[in-house]
Design a protein that fits this description.
The protein has 145 residues and is mainly α. It has a domain of 87 residues. 43% of the residues lie in helices and 0% in strands. The radius of gyration is 33 Å and the shape is elongated.
Length: 145
């Protein structure tokens, strides 16, 4: 696969101006170099897309450069700035804990509470008129109730 040409920083307005200059008369050397780079890039991109030898992610990396900013690094910086501002303010009681009293490091569940969470509720047993625990499943006869 042919390597991508070096990135050329040129705005859309500059390209429009180049087109206008080309309509009026012959181009100077600098304009010819810009036009050559644009045409090479277009041909290369078209070839890659026709050959289907490039992924969208790889194409983005080639056109815009590799992503060097990671989310974790950005969040670390934000946390450090927040902790620096917290040092000037007195800490609130229970800071760093969620309203339920659990620490932030615990993994969150899916939001449902088990029966044990309802300590004040009274449990009522409701018996089924025809089924009891351990009976075969009435629908498939393979499982148990």
């Amino acid at each position: 696969m042919k390597r991508a040409p070096e990135p050329l920083q040129i705005s859309r307005q500059e390209l429009q101006a180049l087109i206008e200059r080309a309509k009026v008369g012959p181009l100077d050397e600098a304009d010819c170099q810009i036009l050559q780079a644009v045409v090479e890039t277009l041909c290369l991109l078209t070839q890659w897309l026709d050959d289907k030898t490039i992924t969208i992610a790889r194409l983005k990396q080639m056109l815009f450069g590799a992503r060097t900013e990671k989310t974790e690094n950005v969040l670390k910086t934000a946390d450090q700035e927040a902790s620096a501002s917290d040092e000037t303010e007195p800490a609130a009681p229970g800071a760093g804990e969620s309203p339920a009293g659990k620490s932030r490091d615990q993994k969150k569940g899916h939001g449902r509470n088990g029966a044990a969470a309802y300590t004040g509720a009274t449990r009522i047993q409701v018996k089924h008129p025809t089924l009891t625990a351990g009976d075969p499943c009435p629908a498939c006869r393979n499982g148990k109730v």
